[in-house]
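hey so i finally got around to running the thing on that chain from the lab meeting. sorry it took forever, my laptop kept dying and i had to restart like 3 times. anyway pasting the input first so we r on the same page abt which one it is
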Amino acid sequence: MPRIRTRRKPRPTSPDVKLIAGLGNPGKAYVQTPHNIGANVVRELCNRLQSRLRRSWRFKARTGDATWQGESLLLVEPLTFMNLSGNAVGAAMRYRKLTPHDLVVVLDDVDLELGRIRIKPSGGTGGHRGLGSVVDHLGTDAFLRVRVGVGRHAKRDVVEHVLRPFGKEELSLAKVMIRHSADAVLRIIDSGHDAAMNAYNGTMFDAGDAD
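ok and heres what got predicted. didnt touch it at all, straight out
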């Protein structure tokens, strides 16, 4: 009896989707650490846009579909550890047939003090292993990134600093920065990265800037 071949379901094409990836480490122990501020921005966007992140074994990530001002968004929180972030981001982009032009990566930056945001359309990794993993998997650094300042600690090395939870005062400002960073992502979608850079790059926020 001849074997019956079944058609594979075609992969969805998403030419108008923006993929927003927030980098971090999986697990409750890391949620309030500087290294997870990017992932927390994606969670903020998810709550704000009434989406829901669901675990995707295909992408090794939690993902959620959302819309903003008529634009389709795919929110991605990798569940790999930070230095393997490109596994999840690259897999999601390939499956949705997206290009680097469709990608916005949100991540922590120790070279920016807590309270600052820097939006860049391309550039080096600054030694950030999560960003480096994304660059390696895509084969290019020509994608938008929203760098959220977490600063450095005078008495700790960088690794210890980014993996230790924020102190009480730092956490208050970090929560403000998560909201402003989510605003910055939506400004990129609304008005383009140039307008977002003009609005956010160089601005210093403090814990009183909650709205």
